[in-house]
Each structure stands twice: as C-alpha cells, then as structure tokens.
Amino acid sequence: MTVEAHxxxxxxxxxxxxxxxxxxxxxxxxxxxxxxxxxVQDLAAHIVTSGRGFIRxxxxxxxxxxxxxxxxxxxxxxxxxxxVASALNGVTDRFEALYxxxxxxxxxxxxxxxxxxxxxxxxxxxxLAEVAFHGWDLETSLGRSPHFDSAIxxxxxxxxxxxxxPRTYAAGLTAERGQGERFLLRVADEPSRAWLITxxxxxxxxxxxxxxEGDGNVPARGGGLAITASAGDLALLVYGRxxxxxxxxxxxxxxxxxxxxxxxxxx
Length: 267
Prior knowledge:
Low-confidence stretches: none
Number of domains: 2
Order of helices and strands: HHHHHEEHHEEEHEHHEH
Largest sheet: 5 strands, mixed
CATH topology of the largest domain: Four Helix Bundle (Hemerythrin (Met), subunit A)
CATH superfamily of the largest domain: dinb family like domain
Number of strands: 7
Helix content: 40-55%
C-alpha cells in the first residue's frame, strides 16, 4: 500500500477522533479507560504526545540522526477536551506536512524507534495504527461498542503482521515463549489473503501466502490452527483487543486456541 493511502486514512480517522474528543463531557473525560491506569483524558493526551514523538523521530532521521530523541515537554494536565482535540489536529497537520514532496529514497530513510529503527515509510502506517487503535480504545472506554474500520484494517494488516508483531515478540511481550506453534490468519471475505505465523522460542516468523480453495486446513495437517475473521476483527485480535473464540472461525488443533493468547505478542 502507498504512503498516500495511509496518510489519507490517517486524516479521516484523526479528524473523526478529534471531533469526538472535543465533544466529551467532564464525566466522560475522567472515566477509566480500557488502557489502565489511564483515564480517558490520559488516553486522548497520549494520542497527541505519541504523534509528536513520531514527528521528532522522522525529522531527526531525515536529518541523518538516529539517536533516541529527548522526550518532549508535553503536558496536558488539566487540559480540557477541546484543547486536546485542537492539539491532535495540529499533530496530524504537522505529520502530513513531513511527507510532502519526499522522494522514494527519503521514504526509506531510517529513523529511531524504541523497538528497532524503522523507515519514514513505516512511520506513516504506524501512526495510522496508533490513531486507529487508540481511537477504538477511547470509544470502547465510553461504552460505545465500536467496530474497527475494515478499510483501515486492510491497509494495516501487512504492517501489523509482517513488521510490528515480530518485533513485539522479540521484545519479550508475551506470557510464554512459543514452541513452534503455527497459526494461519485469513481475512474472512478475502480468504486468499492470509499470513502464516510460526512462533518459535526466539523468533516469530510471518509469511504472507496466497491460499486457494481447499487449502483452509493446511496448518491443521501440520499441527496448526487456521483463524478466519473479518479484517477489522483480525486487526483487533493481533493487537490484543479481541478474544479469539468470540471473533473468529477456527479450524485445527484445539489446544492452540488457548496457546494463542499466551504466545502471541500484544503491544
């Protein structure tokens, strides 16, 4: 997918989120979020401050600096919803402006990231993920039972599964280490689009594959588990926001259903 597609989706989702944040009541603003120990106001502020951190990393990377940037002096203590919403709009404006006119070579420029340095191109997808997932978190915290946007999920799944998830696993963010478990993740209404995940003790390997009619139980024959869900539910699942049994059709080794939650990394 192109950087332009990620930035266009980011603009749409950020605008929607800023509108929602601006209209929050004082009671909603101080409600507990589903990202403890944050309150809703802390979650909203984090969406802004993380964006500012991404901007600093990209600016420094384009300038040839890949050292960790100093933390900004961002402080939204006591800020009201309209103030944070306005700040989010400003961050999205600045983020978009960074990409204006960049060459292909510049898009491949390496920038600092705490889980391994990444390209300017990757940051476009990662910022969309940050806003989309934390936007979902905010709506969930307010009891609105949101769906994860399927178009955004389709844009993000390659980055989530092929880049983010392996590095998150390498950072040790799992309850247990894998022992060679194999999971085939498929998009429900596009079953030919799939990823084979193999989780070994030291590394999580992701292989994009194209399945055909009759291939659904390939992992099962190898002792694995095939997981089929909508694009939105797959995104929520791999980012720890959904329960496997609740959102997916499962085929294969039943023992791996419980193992999934233990060995699959949640950021």
